[in-house]
Amino acid sequence: MTFNKRIMLNFAEHKNTETTTTYMKKIYLISMAFAISFTSVHAQKRAFTIQDLYKVKSVYGFSLSPANDRLVMAKSSMNLAEHSSKSDIAIMNLKTKTPQLELKSDGGKSYQPMWDKDGKGVFYLGIADKKAQVFHLNLESGEKKQITDFELGVNSPIISPDNNYIAFTADVYPETGADGKKNAELRKKKAEGPVQAHIADKLLYRHWTSYSDGKYQHIIVFDVNTKTYTDVTPGEFVSPVFSPSGADGNFCFSPDSKEICYVSNHTKNPEANTNCDLWTVSVKGGEAKCLTSDNPAWDGSPQYSPDGKWIAYRLQKVESYESDRFRLALYNRANGEKKILSDSFDNWVDDYKWSSDSKHIYFIGEQRGYSPLFKIDINTLKINELIPNRAISSFDISNDGYVYYSYSTTGKPSALYRRKLGKKNATEEQLTFLNQELENEVDFRPSEAMWVKGAGGDSVEVFIVKPHNFDPSKKYPLVINVHGGPQMQWMDSFRGDWQVYPGAGYVVAYPNPHGSTGYGQAFTRAISGDWGGKPYEDIMLVTEALAELPYIDADRMGAMGWSYGGYFMNWLQGQKHPFKCLASMMGLYDLTSMWGTTEELWFPNFDLEGQPWNSELYKKFSPSQYVKNFKTPTLIITGERDYRVSYTQSLQYFSVLQTLGIPSRLIVFKNDGHWPSTLNSMPVYYNAHLEWFNKYLGGAPAPWNTEDMVNNKVEYK
After folding, report:
1. Of 70, 454, 534, 714, which is least surrounded by CB within 10 A?
2. Quick one: CA torsion of 569, 571, 573, 577, rounded to 10 degrees?
3. Among 84-88, 514-518, 681-685, where is mean pLDDT lowest?
4. CB 463 within 8 A of CB 497
5. Integer CA distances (angstroms), 528 to 227, 484, 560, in order
6. Three-state secondary structure readout of 549-600
């Protein structure tokens, strides 16, 4: 059972009809009535723990068979005690809604399944000799066969429509190209030789967690018949471009299997601009053709229409602004003309898929804390919302009018569902129940949505999660979690933070202040040049509104954040605020030194309106400029391999707090970057927060001693 009650608390709308106090009392009575009924259902369930987070299973990477009668998916699970994870492949018969086949993992992982052209077998990634390779499973005979043997391993593979080619990405030296053996030899010399150093003659020499050291991500095409590999994107360019989620979605085959469309930035200074373009190249290699040189901003996420007439893609209009609205566009392959489809949609277009008749495009769009499914007619440009109020993560459309999709809510882990399109009041049918046993045992807490009048009179949405065994007559400590980006949105979707802390007795609130996506591009753009302005005002007004709720203890409030959220914690440190403690993860402390150590310079150049020597914003919004106001106890967590926000930012911050005698703790993960590893480091992350909050806010104690965890003295069960 899930509940997502959206409480409208826009004070501006009610000031003429009733006082805020009266209105809050009404909301309190509604909340109490709900809490009583909800508690009666869930009283027998136990509180959510850190260990439970590692029992949650997920389904991902699913797709329909060519005949639309079966669905293949990958299923993942984790084992905290062993610090391991695995991924298996399953095939579901859609008529009976029962498993047809369970393919256990090769070398611990079988993932990214792809149907072959006849639907008689499945390609997938498995492990061979500790490297990812493409395998094929014949569903009729049961025969399993390894297809690729690339020495570096295979990343993000795609299969050509005729099944004659496999394209994948690999980090290669330009001089060796698709010669996997020579690339492996050079890597070994670099890793094992007596000189251990990095050398660079230009910027973007490192990215996320690794140095390039002369390597570039290229697209390698494997000819299944000749067993040969070809580097179809040679040169000193990253093709396809970097993406936090990998190369998926940034290259694809044409319907006739003759060419590949991919995304690459060929400008002189790729570290300082977002001018990525669509390129096409033959599967045999040769000279590439640029399709979007007329747009100085980002073009990417290409998909050919099934009839081959169009290439759909996403684009941005504002040069070097990575958070400009992502619009859906078309490229006419016959005459090179382009047109934008989604200008009327004032939010980001994310994942999308063509209809089988090439007349419509289905897409997920960010919208007010959700990512609903939409459909657009490529001729009329009419947009219809098909599935509202869902944080959909992936989907596929069948020829018989069903949509298959996965989503989670704050209080329910991800599962696979289907719904009949075009049918009024169509029933949503859940197809996978991987977490049912855990859901029956553990109290997964749902969220409620509240609207508060923020900076400039704009409405700001905040999601609230109440603690386990919530009693509306009691008062609870509050933790506010500020998101990173800063251009992103918190959604009503499952996340460990939304369950671990309520399980320990905290009310958790996660707001979407100015800068968040999903509330119109003007709202998103509002943070650029104003990092510590409107978002700070929003969070303070949200905090004031939350403190008025009858179940919140205004004397026990804390705040936490990651990336920009970490910066915001450091910003709060120097500003007036009501929080008893702070927790800053991968946060910015000194914006001037940040500029000199980050890798994607287009971000600070745009959002801070220049470089440190020509923009006053680096000082105006730098927490380091407000040291005289510092006083709040702070937990600091960072990763030594974070090249987005250098870990030295956290070291600087910790040095200042310690020198000033302000209670503080620093945790540096040696092998992690901007995101700690899920299995090795995240348990420490959660436990450290619980320890910190327990000390200053008085919730339940942490299950382990964080220092013992860091020293590997804890055995997880």
Report:
1. 714
2. -90
3. 84-88
4. no
5. 50, 14, 22
6. CCCEEEEEEEEEEECHHHHHHHHHHCCCCCCCEEEEECCCCCHHHHHHHCCC
Distance CA(507)–CA(476), nearest Å, equals: 6
Domain with CATH 3.40.50.1820 in the chain: 1-44+445-481+489-558, 563-717
- Higher-confidence residue of 213 and 32: namely 213
Residues 1-44+445-481+489-558, CATH architecture: 3-Layer(aba) Sandwich (3.40)
The CA distance from 329 to 313, in Å, is 5
Q: Is the pLDDT of residue 17 over 80?
A: no
pLDDT for residue 195 is more than 70: yes
Shortest CA distance to 367 belongs to which of 348, 382, 387, 395? Answer: 348
Q: Number of helices (H) and strands (E), helices first, in the chain? A: 15, 39
Q: Which segments within 4-56 are labelled E, that is strand?
A: 6-7
Sign of the C-alpha dihedral, residues 649, 654, 657, 659? negative
Other CB atoms within a 10 A radius of the CB of residue 601 amount to 19
672: which strand partners?
A: none
Averaged over 251-257, what is the pLDDT?
98
Name the helix (H) or strand (E) containing 206: strand 206-207
Write the pLDDT tens digit of every residue in 256-268. Answer: 999 999 999 999 9
Q: What is the CA radius of gyration of the chain?
A: 26
- At residue 437 the predicted structure's pLDDT band, cuts being 50, 70 and 90, is very high
Q: CB neighbours (10 Å) of residue 254?
A: 18
Question: Which pLDDT score, from 0 to 100, does residue 410 have?
Answer: 98
- DSSP sequence for 312-376: EEEE--STT-TTS--EEEEEETTT--EEES-TT--S-EEEEEE-TTSSEEEEEE-BTTBB-EEEE
Q: Distance between CA 476 and CA 501 in Å, rounded?
A: 12
Whether the Cβ atoms of residue 107 and residue 99 lie closer than 8 Å to each other: no
Is 326 in contact with 318 (CB distance < 8 Å)?
no
In angstroms, how far is CA 518 from the centroid of its own chain? 15
Q: Does domain 563-717 have CATH number 3.40.50.970?
A: no
